[in-house]
Amino acid sequence: MPITVNGQAIADETIQAEAERMRPEFERTFADEAPDEREKQLQQWARENAVERVLLEQAARDDTDPLPDEQFQEVLEQAKRQAGDDADEAQLQEDVTLNLKVGRLLENAAAKAPEPTDEQVRAFYDENQDAFRAPERVHAAHIVMHVDANNPPEVAEAKLREAQKQIEAGADFAEIADTNSDCQDPSGDLGWFPRGHMVEEFENTVWNMKPGEVSPIFATRFGFHIVKMIEKKPEGIVPFEEAVDHARERVQQQLRDEAVEIYLDSLREKATVEEA
């Protein structure tokens, strides 16, 4: 069924291309629906997306504000590299200008979204607990001596043994890590990580330790290590205090998406959209 937007026709090929772009994620998300109903919904959403894209492009063509030259040139050069030597440069410039102006319209619309309130953030956390479920995690720090041409295995291990003696004598692990480790993380702190995040030898050591325990020296492909297991947490819901920043980001994105939808609705309200 042909569609025109303010007199501009949308080709069936454009709608089908949008449907195929959406299809993989759409079919995963709505796998439980009957195939014919799923296809009907996909086609409808593809048509709506195509209409919105035309509305945005029409608004972008009406936008007379110049684009930042540096941004334009950077994106144009990328487009040239992707298109190859036979590309029509005039067409590339037109396409880049249009796409950048569409992006600017959407960003300006999203920027009108309000900041999330504390109540909205808390409500999102409470209503979406599965989004804040974390696997079993451990918090660890380490001291590492890398092995290379200037630091052969026997030298690296000997240096680490000196660090080990200081720790056994009561020196603070974090201070020894700061002064002796090749790790760039302050105090050798690796933060929280789940199983499967580190190399096998590291995993086998740290996951068999108790909080506060310091390991013997062991080797991985990165060199020689001493690890301190600081804390361990079981699988479960991350407490709100730890999840608040992530929850706030999620709510902010929702508000930005809603602001964009309001803008798109405003374009559609003023448009003449006809389906034959």
Query: Largest sheet, order of strands side by side?
Result: 5-4-7-6
Q: Determine the N-to-C terminus distance.
A: 6 Å
* Largest sheet features: 4 strands, antiparallel
Share of helix among residues?
A: 55-70%
SS class:
alpha+beta
Could you tell me the number of beta strands?
9
What's the rounded overall pLDDT mean?
A: 94
SS summary, helix count? 9
Unreliable stretches: none
Explain this structure to me?
The chain has 276 residues and is an alpha+beta fold. The protein folds into two domains: 3-114 and 252-275; 136-234, Chitinase A, domain 3. It has helices at residues 12-29, 35-62, 69-83, 89-110, 118-127, 153-168, 173-180, 200-206, 240-270; strands at 3-5, 8-10, 133-134, 137-146, 189-194, 218-220, 223-233, 236-237, 273-275. Strands 5-4-7-6 form a four-stranded antiparallel β-sheet, sandwiched between helices. It has a three-stranded antiparallel β-sheet with strand order 2-1-9. A two-stranded antiparallel sheet has the order 3-8. Strand 1 and strand 2 (8-10) form a beta hairpin. Helix 4 packs across helix 9 (240-270) and helix 5 packs across helix 9 (240-270). The chain is elongated. The model has no long low-confidence stretch (mean pLDDT 94).
